[in-house]
Specification:
The protein is of the alpha+beta class and 165 residues long. It has 4 helices and 7 strands, in the order E-H-H-E-E-H-E-E-E-E-H. Strands 1-7-6-5-4-3-2 form a 7-stranded antiparallel β-sheet, with helices on one face. The radius of gyration is 16 Å and the shape is globular.
Length: 165
């Protein structure tokens, strides 16, 4: 299931990228989404910054989905690749269960606008499970969209806090 989201911010793109890598952003996002976020790896790989985070979230899942994954806790690794100074980051999500039947990947673009910058997130989450795959995709996309809405709110708070300093 494909999805696209856009968020406007009142700061230049380089500040938004900086805030996305700020541990305070991670802490606040984890609290807002009731998810445990652990940075497992953060390194330069040639010209690109590679970050892998392990994320575990408690969610109210539809019964068939909870039964299929064996839990009401969803866990995944999120990998990102971004060359500092560029506007595009690539991301990939790998679930801890059903890895052969679930995929998630896309891009995040941060570009300058007259009032600051815009973040555009485009992705595709696919679940290949008979009968309930579509229902699972819909639920996962809703969760991802809500997480990005929370992230946008937190980023705006951090931008406002920095403006006061």
């Amino acid at each position: 299931m494909k999805f696209d989201m856009r968020h406007e911010f009142s700061c230049p793109p380089d500040l938004l990228w900086e805030l996305l890598d700020d541990p305070e952003f991670d802490r606040r996002l984890a609290a807002a989404t009731q998810a445990k976020r652990v940075t497992v790896e953060n390194r330069m790989d040639g010209k690109q910054r590679y970050i892998r985070r392990s994320i575990t979230a408690r969610r109210t899942l539809p019964a068939p989905m909870a039964k299929l994954i064996g839990s009401d806790e969803i866990g995944w690794d999120q990998e990102t690749w971004h060359e500092p100074g560029t506007e595009r980051m690539r991301w990939k999500i790998t679930p801890r269960v059903l890895q052969d039947r679930m995929t998630g990947e896309g891009t995040t673009i941060v570009r300058a606008t007259p009032r600051g910058c815009e973040r555009v997130i485009s992705g595709d989450l696919t679940v290949k499970v008979a009968l309930i795959g579509g229902q699972m995709e819909k639920k996962l996309v809703e969760d991802v969209q809500q997480s990005y809405e929370n992230a946008a709110r937190i980023l705006r708070e951090l931008i406002a806090e920095r403006a006061k300093v």
